[in-house]
Amino acid sequence: MMRVGIIGCGRIVEEGHVPAYRELGVTVTALADPVERRREKIGDMLGVPSERRFADYKLLLGQSDVDVVDIAVPHFHHHKVLMDAAQCKKHILCEKPLTTSLRQADQVLDAVAGAGVQLCVAHNYLYQPSMQLVRKMVQQGAIGEPFLIRTEGLGGSHWDGAPEFNPEWRTQRAIAGFGCLLDNGYHDIYLARALLGEVKTVTAAVSTEREEHEVEDLALALLQHEFGTTSLQVSWAVSGGGQWVYEVYGSEGTLSLSRKSGKLMHYRGEWKELKAPPWEWGFKGLFSDFFSRLQRGEPSPVPGAEGRRNLEVILSAYEASRTGVRQTV
Ligand SMILES: NC(=O)c1ccc[n+]([C@@H]2O[C@H](COP(=O)([O-])OP(=O)(O)OC[C@H]3O[C@@H](n4cnc5c(N)ncnc54)[C@H](O)[C@@H]3O)[C@@H](O)[C@H]2O)c1
Hints:
Order of helices and strands: EHEHEHEHEHEHEHHEEEEEEEHHE
Strand order of the largest sheet: 14-13-12-11-7-10-9-8-15
CATH architecture of the largest domain: 2-Layer Sandwich
CATH class of the largest domain: Alpha Beta
Bound molecules: nicotinamide-adenine-dinucleotide
Helix content: 25-40%
Low-confidence stretches: none
Number of strands: 15
């Protein structure tokens, strides 16, 4: 079994990664975070010995009993930590987004290839049971030929980071890079690409509605795929929040998932409610897939190039909004 070292002991590690490691029985041999209370919290949850809780992640990278590093730091730090991890020849599990620029992403891909290690980007919603059910039904023809996805994630605020660090970092340009499209719309885009094929062109309207936000807090995008269209809406500025629906329309039917209630509706001649699996992050499935592939010497399920491509679509949406010109991706 792979031995993991965690870099960045924040909220997603506490709420998403730790439960997955526990369920899978993965041993976390070391962790790193500059904030002592975060090291204590995650270290205690996972039983990591106190001498193996580091303030400086570079000390963790020097440990021989760490096979895979799990990078879960704020966006701006991804590039540096990824480059250092590759240099130390560790396999890497990296939270999304891979980086905040394509130039940085290319450097990471080169470093990873040069080191001969595997990199897996956290496209965890691909492994979320309700989204897997939607994909399976579409692939089995439950709605005929899919041609349109409407994915709405209009929220009233961003997801706070851990209180002991900087809960507002997502709204700060220097540390987050960009706002709700990069942070939340990111997942909708790889999910849509998995159903409707590669994105060909992008148009978007991106804006900042709340003055306390340095990054965009509203993004509306239209993605033209090989096999259909996605209409994507994400926000951190909508009072009360929206309905959080995920809908796939096909030539013969419709699937409509409420990400608020978990209710999944299927239309084919008549509406029927289906039993949808309870919501979960999808980390257990992703981690299990990555680690078993590593053990078999197989490539990562979400390689760096896939993270780079998703980033490229998002950066094109920003460019489309800035210029008012549809972008070919
Ligand atoms: N895949 C998903 O579904 C999902 C969900 C939420 C967050 N995320 C991603 O996880 C990452 C972290 O988000 P979060 O919400 O947990 O943030 P957070 O603020 O709660 O946690 C970040 C942690 O990183 C630590 N940190 C900061 N600089 C560091 C450094 N140089 N070295 C080591 N640790 C450092 C902070 O002290 C903090 O504990 C982001 O990339 C975010 O996009 C992914």
